[in-house]
Amino acid sequence: MRFLLVLITLLSTSVLAQEKPLLTWYLTNWPPAFIVDGLRQGTGYADVIVDILEREMPEYRHERQLLPYPRILNYIERGNEGCYPTNIYDKKHDFGVTSVPIVLVSGHSIYIHKDNLEKFPYPRGVSLAALLNNSALTLGVRGDLEFGSTLSPILKSHRNEKHMITRSGQDLVDGLVKMLDRRRIDYFIEYNFVMKFVTDKIGLKMDDFIEIPIFENRDEYVRGAVECPNSPWGKEVIVKVNKILVNLRETAEFRELNEKWFVSSSNKLQYWPKYQELILDITQ
After folding, report:
1. What is the pLDDT of residues 222-265, one digit of tens each?
2. Of 92, 140, 182, 228, which is the most buried if we count CB atoms within 10 A?
3. Helices (H) and strands (E) in the chain — how many of each?
4. Hey, do 21-104+221-280 and 108-217 end up sharing a CATH topology, with the first three levels equal?
5. Structurally, what CATH architecture does the domain formed by 21-104+221-280 represent?
6. Plot region of 11 (φ>0 → left; ψ -120 to 50 → alpha; else → beta)
7. Domain 108-217 falls in which CATH fold?
8. Can you spell out the DSSP letters for 65-95?
9. Beta carbons within 10 angstroms of residue 218's beta carbon
């Protein structure tokens, strides 16, 4: 009799689970948004956002699919019933519908080793163009030179100069940080959240490096949001997501998420006022 009751309970639970609609979350291998392997697997900032939304949306069966980013965009464009948790809020696609913004990222910064501070007497900020005009300072940089609409043209105008070392390959950011640590380059450019992740990953101390704001992009911010297909299904999901996020974005849980990844010594004074203006004040 007891066995029969257990069996009925299991079957009922299975049927109820199958009756829930499926919500697929698209993940891609782009740390530290998604950390898909290693000791820190599942702890990226986008991983945590999916954790929160799955917890807050029990009316769905949730699954996660790891896909190349171009395929994710293709699936959303085709109207597949799945969502990407942190697409760029300000770069909306005609085929997608986005939630209210949930994360705020400052623009790229200059990083130097603390032992080279005498070469960079610019604690409050520096012009990238001015640095690149100084051939005594060596920049290490990703080979694609794609750093947004403001910085990329400045970098590309110095593409073939000897004091700009470009790097490509799988470990390009890791390699550049190691070069900076060994003083083989004087400075390099990156987002603060990427720098935090890479130094931790390769066993270096973030305190050994100094972040210097760049004048040319000091007012630039990137906002992340959930994106679903622009379909009746996608719009319904986004309405539900927005109701959740409008309340949760002000909680300690979300503030700690942004603090951990996106706040640093160079932006901490202006970050939270900007978070209020660019995140919390956007309610639909």
Report:
1. 999 999 999 999 999 999 999 999 999 999 999 999 999 999 98
2. 228
3. 10, 11
4. yes
5. 3-Layer(aba) Sandwich (3.40)
6. alpha
7. D-Maltodextrin-Binding Protein; domain 2 (3.40.190)
8. EE--HHHHHHHHHHT-SEEEEEEETTS--TT
9. 16
